Amino acid sequence: MHETVSSSSQVSADVDTVDHLPDWQPGEQLRRTDKAVTTAGRWRGRDVVAKQLTSSERHWVKRFAHEVSAYRAFEATPPPWPVPQLQYASQRLLIIERLPGASPNTDRYPPLLAEPTVTAMIDALTGFAAWQPPPGPLSVPATDWPARIRRYAAAGDLPNDVQQPLLEAVASAPLVFGHGDPLASNALAGAGHTLIFIDFEFAGMYPPGADLALLGLWLGRHDPRAEQRCAQIAEAGGSLHRYRAMRVLWLAREQRLYQTLFDMVDDHEHRQWLDDQIADAITGLRRTAGRD
């Protein structure tokens, strides 16, 4: 069902393209992917960002709706860190306040980032894990981890003997709130401004260390020290084993995601890096089994 937030109650609730939004003043296109187009602009005297869903795939339609729900949850129960204010939402159009800053990098595996940026990203994820979301879509498990583990093992993406350690580490975890997609492209950073994560389409409850494990995976491709820092923070918080379990699962997912790319692009170096990383991660998981 289409709904709008209170600040746009006079706008027809079936406006699903930014071009049909009354009083919309377009600005620069910020990003285009195979699922959405993000554009800056002004609406009703405010600097805003419009996200237009272009994919009809069920998965991305569901993720888009989840992101709208996340912004509504933030509006009802403001977290202790800055988030853009929701201005308008329908089934395929989302408009949020434009906050200062720009993405540190748009690559999935970014080159070496400035140390203050890495620190700010880690601090932001640590802050997410300390927040208790209100009852609703953000307070439930982000996915069925046991089912995913079994699916990966059945598909041959994980060794059979690691399935039980993963289940023990993840299934019993006391879940914490997480962003779920802490890409550098999903962050806003700038001189004199607090780093802010946006794009909450995967936000929800995760095992402790899940966000850090994912950030460490992406940054660690070109900055191994960043991954070491993420692991150290997880260890200091008593969740190193769960961090390593999630690192195994995230790496298995990366291999699955990149499989089609390997079929099209001769990228032996990255394939080898992923293979080496998951082998090391499985060894680390076995080493820490039962510690936390």
UniProtKB/TrEMBL annotation:
It comes from the Bacteria. Residues 1-38 are annotated as: Disordered. InterPro entries: Aminoglycoside_PTrfase, Kinase-like_dom_sf. Residues 47-244 form the Aminoglycoside phosphotransferase domain. Residues 1-15 have a biased composition (Low complexity). SUPFAM superfamilies: Protein kinase-like (PK-like) (SSF56112). This is Aminoglycoside phosphotransferase domain-containing protein. It comes from Actinoplanes nipponensis.
